[in-house]
Structure formats: C-alpha cells, structure tokens
Amino acid sequence: MKIIYRYIFIELITPLLFGIAAFAAIFIGTDLLFELIEYYNNYGVELLTLLQLFFLNLPTIIVITFPMATLLGTIMSYGRLSGDNEITALRAGGISVYRLVRPALFLGILMTLFTIGVNEYIVPQANYLNEQIVYQFKHGERMPSTQHNLFLTPLKDGYPDYVLYTKLYDGETGVMQEIIFQDYEEGKPVTLIQAENAVYTGDRWKFLNGHIYRLEPGERIPDLKFEEYDVNNLNYTPAQMARLNKKISDMNFTELIEYINLKKSQGNDVNKELVELHQRISIPFASFIFALLAATLGIQPQRSGGSATGMGLSIIVIFIYYTLMTVGSALGEQGTIPPFLGAWLQNFVFMITGGIMLYRLGR
C-alpha cells in the first residue's frame, strides 16, 4: 500500500510545480512587471533595485499561487491516472476511493503548513522592505517612523481610562513630544498633565518638563510643576505605539493580534482586522480543500486528464472560491456575520461539496 501512496504522491509533484510556475507567471506578467516598468519610467529606478523589488514581491505571489497550484496539479495528476485506466485497475484491486485520495490530502496539508509558515515569517518582512525601498525612491528620503497627532483613548468599564495626545511620536527613539495626558476616574477627568517630552524607561513612561493640573468642576487648578514625572497607568510600550503606524500586511500573526487588542481597548471596530486575522489560516487551508475537491474531480472516469481540462476546471473552481471569499469578507467586515465565518465561508462551502462528492464516488 505504501508503494501506491508513494507512486501517486510522486505523480502529484510535477503538475504541482507546473501550476506554481504557471500561476506565478500570470501574476508577474499581469501586475508586477507593469509596476516595475512604471518605477523605471517615472522614477528612473536602477535595474539592481528593480531586481530587488522583484524578489521581495515573489513571496506574496507564491503564497497566493499555492492553493491554485494544488488544485491544478491534483486535477491533472488524478485525471492522468484516470485517463490511463490506472484508477480503474487500482479500484479493481480492492483499493477504495478514500485510500486513493490520501496522497492528495497529505500534499494539501503540507502545502497548507508551508503557506502558513511563509505567510508568518517571510511575507511581512518582505512587504515592509519593499515599502521602504519604494518610499525612498519616490520621496528621496527614508520612510519616516514618526506619527503626528497621535491619540490613545483606552476604555475601562465602558469609560475612558485616560486620553493621551502627542503632537509627534518617534517610533525609532520612542520619544513623544508636546504631550497632553488626561486621567479619568469613573468616567470623569481628574488630572491633566502637560509635558514637553516623554521617554520610556523600560517599564513606564517618564514625562519631562511639564505641569500637573488637578481638575475640579468648572476650573483647572495648577498643582505641580515638574522636571520628571512617572506616569504609571500609561501602559502602552513604544513597540505597541509604533505598531499603530504599521500596515496590516507588514504584521505577522502575533503582531496582528496585539494590534487588534490595542484597537479594541480603545473601543474601535475591529471586524476588518479580525477577518484578516482568520484569513491568515483560512486562505492557506484552501490548499487542503482544493486537494480534496480536485482529487474527486480528477478521479472521475469521464475525465480525460488533459491539461486543458484541468486548467479549465481549475479556473472555474478558483473563480467561485474567490467570489465566495470576497462576499464572506465583506459580510464579516460589516458585522453582518461573525468575522470568523466571513473568513471561512468559502472553505466550508467547498469542504462540504468535496465531502459529498467523495462520499458519492466511494459508494
């Protein structure tokens, strides 16, 4: 039995690689190349820099192509085995359909895990480096890490815990400038602090050169002038504050969870970010779903196994899948359905469809 599994698994590899190359070429030829040509024509970017941008964009493209390539490769492989009557011979030898699809499912799991790994450890860094390079040649300077007019308003029991405003926050040095900090108790402002600067000392923020005002109804009473003052309840680290300036596509899974918790603590809607978070798993999981569906499609006796048939079926399935994904994402982001369901809707539909097809085929 292991020999049969190994034989089918090897049959899957070549079409899979062909699918990765074919779909990657489509994305590169229809999108990335035009983008690079625009950089060359409009900004005079050097060829070495263009080459660097090309490779930095590849991880994102490759990750997108993996589920599609798994679908195409599996349909072509099982179609070829079916067309040459090898599937018929194996079934006549007592091997069930459920066993025949195991190599495809194993490949789907491998592709899913590999995609999650690339998405977590390579894609965010590559996207961030790509943005830095593009910003630099477009603006003639490094991409700034500063944030202007930054507000933080975390909630506690439904009321503001405090309100922080800083005119300028430098993400590299972790220094805030021109700060106003208003503290609340039971939803009412009790203290106002104005300071020129603030620095992080490792476990708390130290405000420098400012005043503290005690707030009474209808008045503001000067209470203390200080050169240094520790603010213990400002519980955001410089890294967390710098993350507010980062794009979601540049964050790994852990950073995205922290970003969502940060926005949620301020009472902001996070449905869009939650959909994005769940899609970090659901989209790679499409490789497994596609492997299940493609194996049942390819194993059908009427399939000729030709590459044109496989490509045609793949395009139809991919179109339906990404249409459902777009609809699910929109519904999840608007809160019409839970974000988890919005991110996984297309997978549930295709998994149920593939399961029913496999069951009927195996009867």
TrEMBL record:
Task: Please list the GO biological process terms of this entry.
Answer: lipopolysaccharide transport
Sorted alphabetically, the keyword list is: Cell membrane, Membrane, Transmembrane, Transmembrane helix
Q: How does it sit in the membrane?
A: Multi-pass membrane protein
Subcellular location, record wording: Cell membrane
Q: Which domain of life is it from?
A: Bacteria
A Pfam short name: LptF_LptG
InterPro entries in alphabetical order? LptG/LptF_permease
Membrane-spanning residues: 12-34, 54-79, 100-118, 281-299, 311-331, 343-361
Name any GO cellular component annotation: ATP-binding cassette (ABC) transporter complex
Q: What is this protein called?
A: LptF/LptG family permease
Q: Which organism is it from?
A: Iocasia fonsfrigidae
Upper taxonomic lineage: Bacteria, Bacillati, Bacillota, Clostridia, Halanaerobiales
